[in-house]
Sequence to fold (197 residues):
Amino acid sequence: MDPIRQIRSRTVALASTNIDTDQIIPARFLRTTTREGLGEHLFSEWRYSSDGRPRPEFVLNTEAAAGCTILVAGRNFGCGSSREHAPWALLDYGFRAVISSEIADIFRNNSLKNGLLPVVVDEATSAWLLEHPGQTVTIDVAGGTVTLPDGRSARFPLDGFERYCLLNGVDELGFLLSRQTAIDAFEQRTGVGRAPA
Fold:
């Protein structure tokens, strides 16, 4: 995972509510254990017609979406089944953050473990972002803020451990491995963790 300190980008907006993980990445694309190539299938049912051609009216198929790394979505984003492939597909496509007024807990946890920043903002900020797609916003991980083009800021929740992992580009396993020396010293001192003789 790459460290995330600040994300500054134009936004892509999907105003739909209750976008579930099967809409993010349909089940037929879950046959892989890596994220490479999943971005091609992100929102597949909405992006492509039945013959595989891109639907020109879908926002990700427009010129305005090119290069955007922040997705703004309607409330209850990422609901449905637990599938790590959903944040993988968003990351592989090029998104680094998702902003919504509500993000499903399991999706949020999977996102944080994979380096996708889930940003939950108040309803007024969310509504403004959905009504003004393509605006450049700045997300500051250390400060836990989203700054709009006019300078207004909205706070979003991020606990200390989540913030530490994002800022340092480590997941839970990486964090534990970085503490290996201290863990070994504790086990030596206390006898905890030793295999029985």
Remarks:
- The chain has a mean pLDDT of 92.
